[in-house]
Amino acid sequence: xxxxxxxxxxxxxxGALNVLRDLNLEVGQxxxxxxxxxxxxxxxxxxxxxxxxxxISGGQIFIGGRNVTWEEPSKRGIGMVFxxxxxxxxxxxxxxxxxxxxxxxxxxxxxxxxxxxxxKVLQIEPLLDRKPAALSGGQRQRAxxxxxxxxxxxxxxxxxxxxxxDAKLRAxxxxxxxxxxxxxKNTMIYVTHDQIEAMTLADRIAIMRGxxxxxxxxxxxxxxRPANKYVAKxxxxxxxxxxxxxxxxxxxxxxxxxxLSLPLTGYDFVDPAAPYGNAYLGVxxxxxxxxxxxxQAPVQIEAEIELVEPLGSDTFARVxxxxxxxxxxxxxxATPHPGDQILLGIDxxxxxxxxxxxxxxx
Length: 362
Hints:
Main location: membrane
Distance between the termini: 33 Å
Order of helices and strands: EEEHEEEHHHEHEHEEHHEEEEEEEEEE
Family: Belongs to the ABC transporter superfamily.
Number of helices: 8
Mean pLDDT: 87
GO biological process, one term: carbohydrate transport
Strand order of the largest sheet: 6-7-8-3-9-10
Organism: Roseibium limicola
Shape: globular
Pfam families: ABC_tran, OB_MalK, TOBE
Low-confidence stretches: none
Strand content: 25-35%
Structural class: alpha+beta
CATH topology of the largest domain: Rossmann fold
Number of domains: 2
Largest sheet: 6 strands, mixed
CATH superfamily of the largest domain: P-loop containing nucleotide triphosphate hydrolases
């Protein structure tokens, strides 16, 4: 099957600054792809290049098999939803939804049918006669999404559409966007810096840094097999704990860090011939064992609780262990206090290894 979007050797320079560098990306038909990264990584820039809002410095962009590298945004067959709602304040919701269709010269009956259909999908039918000033933030964002949907585009681009909303409303609209994709089955590219949005919405996530894609994979793959230390640290909250040490031991391979020694037998190394040398060992807070389970672990560490973050379903604790600061997840009903002593356990099967120099996954 031909990809819905294909990007070949895409580069974008602002003077001497390289913002995107020889970037390649293919997005499948009906796929929900999330571009994830911290501010300045190039994710919104890449989205704007696909939309035609920025002139690229090199490379090609194909949408539906058609080269659109130098086509106008209106000719690319896309619908775009911005971070700001960008609604016309003097128009009703119906007027905002129909404005682009009127400019395109569509018949009145067709315009009304599209607006009515979109309003039904987004459940904003009672809002069609209201102006933006009379809408809540969530209602405005639905109207902004509706303005993109009425175009009947094959590809929808979302540029951090939920970042201006409060946490509860973000969670609600996140669910609605996922249901919308399941219903429409259009190709969607979604930009965010919020890893929860990325993990819950995406079929695949492209994690970006410095204008490059560091890893492109399913949320499950990125969480369980991060390609490098940066991805491992970026995904997860609190982020992964890291131990600085060495891998060695010949037949009985192990990771050592001062008096910490963790057996690594049976591991599936990326390069079986070269797992030795300085390395980082990573373990997620939720994979550090506590309570009775820790006393049965192959590796045990005595620690002291420094800080407690109760979240209801879980409780996270920052602990000091052998002059290292670690985060661990406890049961949500636990009531630990700063100063409490706690036994931690590490299961060798739940850890990650990264080369100390390249920071790539071992």
